[in-house]
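Student: Please help interpret what follows.
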Amino acid sequence: MNEIRPILERYKQKGILIDTNILLLWFVGTANRGRISKFNRTEKFTAEDYDLLLRIILFFNKIVTTPHILTEVNSLINQIGEPERSQCLSIFADIINHRLTESKIESATATKLENFTKFGLTDCGIIVLAKDYLVLTDDFRLANYLQTVGIDVINFNHIRRNEWKVKG
């Protein structure tokens, strides 16, 4: 049993909240695995990272996102050339409609957090929801903050670097 299995088990039913870059990896990789290393926003990832992400996603009954995360992902997808842009947007729509649970966080609520000027709107939305879900991010600053305040988070960079295996 690997080191992250217990935390995955604890949140299997509750759900996982996936940050922007990781969600983007899911959509780009689903459209075209070969594009992962060629698109500037996902080039730090590999096809193996995509496979790891799929194993994590399939483990959970609930995948959570926010309108702010989806807006960021949409904007990033629009930077991809055709035909992958249209393929990604089609996958984006399908996954939103069939797999994701969208939790709405009022912008006014997110901007009232004391760390708003440090983290911005999207990350503050994640911080507001994080107490209810496991957070999956590649953002060191956000992951470090969540750990500091006692919230469960997985930094995707840590699990991919250590080549930990996640079995469903």
In short: DSSP finds nine helices and five strands in the chain.
